[in-house]
Amino acid sequence: KRIILVGPPGCGKGTQSPIIKEDFCLCHLATGDMLRAAVAKKTPLGLQAKAAMDKGELVTDDLVVGIIDEALTRPSCSKGFILDGFPRTVVQAEKLDAMLEKQGHKVDKVLNFNVEDSVLEERITGRWIHPSSGRSYHSKFAPPKVPGIDDISGEPLIQRKDDTAEVLKSRLDAFHKQTTPVIAYYLQKGIVVDLQAEKPAKDVTSQIEKALS
Ligand code: AP5
Ligand code: ZN
């Protein structure tokens, strides 16, 4: 299966991905996670991406298309993938189609996470993440066993630099202006499944399992 997750910041893409990945044996490619890893390591890619990310703006299409192009050739992705946070512009969607076409593949489904903007601020400002695994928690909706500590590794949790109410405004703006047209692009192809992503996380998982089985 080749699946795309699309939706605004905090809609639950990163929460649902590890579950779908296990259920359907897919690789999980999250451009945001990959970019944050590059920023942390101060690689040339990270240095180019950092300023836009800190402001809540999209990084350039070339940068993310390059990352995905490389990642899709991994053996672990040959049977199928979940793209989390990509494509986010119509140009990215077109480039992805071209890349897949070369391999004789296509996107099977686009899961569209519908959540009202007003719900997202609380989700974003209450989020805590474990950087090395990508696991995320929420101080109210999904608290860790010990506050500030990852349940599995015992390592400290951090908050993302762009998870402030202020930067969220730019991220939402980028979503509405640049990513909504991506949903229209896939609607034309008839492969979009709408999710009621304001429901509790477990309920959203059931909606996804139903859509993919
Ligand atoms: P990225 O990392 O992709 O951020 P995002 O799209 O803003 O999405 P988030 O990771 O914030 O949200 P999520 O949907 O994963 O939410 P989560 O499941 O964690 O991108 C970051 C930046 O990188 C961009 O701003 C841009 O600069 C750059 N970038 C990345 N990709 C790019 C691209 N393709 N092109 C250009 N630039 C790109 O959930 C959030 C919180 O809510 C958690 O605490 C969770 O526990 C909680 N929660 C989840 N589900 C529920 C639920 N159902 N009920 C209650 N709480 C819930
Ligand atoms: Zn995410």
From TrEMBL:
<dbReference type="InterPro" id="IPR007862">
    <property type="entry name" value="Adenylate_kinase_lid-dom"/>
</dbReference>
<dbReference type="InterPro" id="IPR006259">
    <property type="entry name" value="Adenyl_kin_sub"/>
</dbReference>
<protein>
    <recommendedName>
        <fullName>adenylate kinase</fullName>
        <ecNumber>2.7.4.3</ecNumber>
    </recommendedName>
</protein>
<keyword id="KW-0808">Transferase</keyword>
<dbReference type="InterPro" id="IPR000850">
    <property type="entry name" value="Adenylat/UMP-CMP_kin"/>
</dbReference>
<dbReference type="Pfam" id="PF05191">
    <property type="entry name" value="ADK_lid"/>
</dbReference>
<keyword id="KW-0547">Nucleotide-binding</keyword>
<dbReference type="InterPro" id="IPR027417">
    <property type="entry name" value="P-loop_NTPase"/>
</dbReference>
<comment type="similarity">
    <text>Belongs to the adenylate kinase family.</text>
</comment>
<keyword id="KW-0418">Kinase</keyword>
<feature type="domain" description="Adenylate kinase active site lid">
    <location>
        <begin position="127"/>
        <end position="162"/>
    </location>
</feature>
<dbReference type="InterPro" id="IPR033690">
    <property type="entry name" value="Adenylat_kinase_CS"/>
</dbReference>
<dbReference type="Pfam" id="PF00406">
    <property type="entry name" value="ADK"/>
</dbReference>
